């Protein structure tokens, strides 16, 4: 999974511009599943049937990453931008980025003032992203256009996946290429001759701007139970607001509640029982600062019992998201155990 994640992180795919990721996943999966197609909004749907009758499980991982879009090319050649997804304006200054045009990628940097200018500025002032710009080295607008850059081109962080210590990695777009790699690995390696039921893999688009792809999928598919596999923000660093309820290295996250979902008790209790039975390290998650595709999936098909497997992550929505590979493995093992444990949809009924 680690090398697949490295490949997926290298593909540009912010909200609305997920085509390179969806294309790669389609080519990889089309011959390994029973049905594979892309819906009208861009979601990749990959369906694999087990050997025995059983419930239909939808598992969703979103393909989009937070990024930006070129809004204006200034006369100076500097690029104004709009956000795609949620960012903290405080971390944008001097970040290396890639402008993804029709004729290739163009490296650039989000500009900042020289440290020598700070004494002439208000050092406490936080610049809104609308005041910022991307510098691609063009001397004027004509040169920027000659490079192939146009209004509407997407911009991504220029940060490949790197190793950190012996068991951690960092990079951009782990949210949620980590979930995508998990879902691909499940569809490719689980022995479906032992599976009761059907797994619908949803590689969704535009999650970061309102769960839009998952809403489209939920209106069309009819699962009996659903899971989202996504990253979640840990609270184990020294900042004052951190409550130490989620930590890197403490195992897979089993969500109970977030801003988009109160998870079905039958689903999260099942995940807990499987983790304990299989010796999979886990931590429970109640965190209202986040939402996932599960928020859309549980509202489809007249209501679907839904849960979330969360991969713990530091520095979410930045260019240096960090994961522990032990947590990542635990999250995958929990997904695999859930799929192999399915027998009947009544396992997940409300009462």
Provide an overview of this structure.
- The protein is α+β, with helices and mostly antiparallel strands and 351 residues long.
- The chain has 2 domains: 2-65 and 172-348, Zn peptidases (Aminopeptidase, 3-Layer(aba) Sandwich), CATH 3.40.630; 67-157, Beta Barrel (Elongation Factor Tu (Ef-tu), domain 3), CATH 2.40.30.
- Helix content is 24%, strand content 29%.
- It is built from 8 helices and 17 strands.
- It has helices spanning 2-9, 19-29, 141-146, 174-189, 212-220, 265-278, 294-297, 325-341; strands at 35-38, 44-49, 52-62, 67-73, 79-84, 96-101, 104-110, 134-135, 154-157, 162-164, 168-171, 196-204, 225-233, 252-257, 282-286, 306-313, 321-324.
- The strands form 3 sheets. It has an 8-stranded mixed β-sheet with strand order 1-2-12-3-13-16-14-15, sandwiched between helices. A 6-stranded antiparallel β-sheet has the order 5-4-9-6-7-8.
- The model has no long low-confidence stretch (mean pLDDT 97).
